[in-house]
Amino acid sequence: MKNMPVSRVMTLAVIAALAMLPLAAPSSAQQNAAPVAPSSAQQNAAPVAQQAPAASPAPVAMPQPAAPSDAAAAPAEREAKLLKAATAELKELSPWTMFMSADVVVKAVMIGLAFASLVTWTIFIAKMIELSVVRRKVRSALAKIADARSLAEAQFALGAKGSVLAAFLAAAMREARLSAGISSDAGIKERAASSFGEIVRAEARRIRLGMGLLATIGATSPFVGLFGTVWGIMNSFIGISKSQTTNLAVVAPGIAEALLATAIGLVAAIPAVIVYNHFSRVTKGYMELVSRASGAAARLLSRDLDRTHVSGLHSRSAAE
User: Fold this and answer.
1) Can you give the pTM of this predicted structure?
2) Cα–Cα distances in angstroms (integers) from residue 166 to residues 147, 148, 173, 177, in the given order
3) Would you call 35 helix, strand, or coil by DSSP?
4) Spatial distance between the Cα atoms of 194 and 188, rounded to a whole number of angstroms
5) Number of H helices, E strands in the chain
6) Pseudo-torsion of CA 104, 110, 113, 119, nearest 10°?
7) 197-249, pLDDT tens digit by residue?
């Protein structure tokens, strides 16, 4: 190195400097670009910082877009109020409450069905007492005349007690008295049988009094109740359209009031049908007792006619 010429040393130094120049250029470029980035970020952040205070009043201007949300919340608030009122009503829901809040037509249907049910039970009690009394009377009368030999003796045994058998005996004696002097016994028996038939038919009409009303109540009460139910459900749907809600808690009271009419109709109809069938059987048994009484009176009349005919023969033979 010491013996090397100065010019050659300088040449090598220049070459080394030129070789290091490209390596130093990127680092200098990075050093020059580093301060530029913050300056651009500061330039972009400056408008944002300037806009931030201007955007702060934006929440104050929110009521204008909030108006549609309030309008949408109004039906929800109305439905909540209706639901709360319906819940309070459901807590107090009872047959009497449903009746008082029902429509006028549904109320009229319920009152009519309740009256029909009252009529059914009144007829039931009255007919039970009546049939018990008349059956006991006929059985007692048949037992009393079992050993009677004539109409007069049977009437004496019965006394003044009124029964259908007493009516048969009275009709037989009246026919025998009116037919005095007629030698045809068959004609007297035929006329007496006609009188007995009239008494039987009259007794059947009397004992079946009220049965037709029971049949009518049993046949029509379900349909009357159904009419009240249909009317009530129509009113419930009208209320749904007015309240603009289909919540079950809101519409349930109206539907329950409507269905109450059908329930009352069934309460009126089912006992009426059962009572009608019961009294049909009991009435049939009583009419069999009436037929027995008619036969007993006819036998006593036949004995009296035969006895009269025999006594007439004896008197004729004695006269001869």
Assistant:
1) 0.63
2) 16, 13, 11, 16
3) coil
4) 10
5) 10, 0
6) -100
7) 999 999 999 999 999 999 999 999 999 999 999 988 888 887 777 777 666 66
Angle of the 248-319 helix axis to the 104-144 helix axis, nearest 10 = 20
From CA 209, how far away is CA 212, in angstroms rounded? Answer: 7
Tell me how far apart the alpha carbons of residues 286 and 131 are, in angstroms, rounded to a whole number.
8
Within the chain, strands assigned E span none
Can you read off the two tokens belonging to residue 67?
């108006």
Q: What is the maximum alpha-carbon separation in the chain?
A: 216
| Contact in structure between 89 and 253 (CB atoms under 8 Å) | yes
Q: Report the chain's C-alpha Rg in angstroms.
A: 56
Retrieve residue 183's tokens: 């030698």
What tens digit of pLDDT does each residue of 47-70 get? 433 444 444 444 444 444 444 444
Q: Indicate the residue type of 179.
A: S
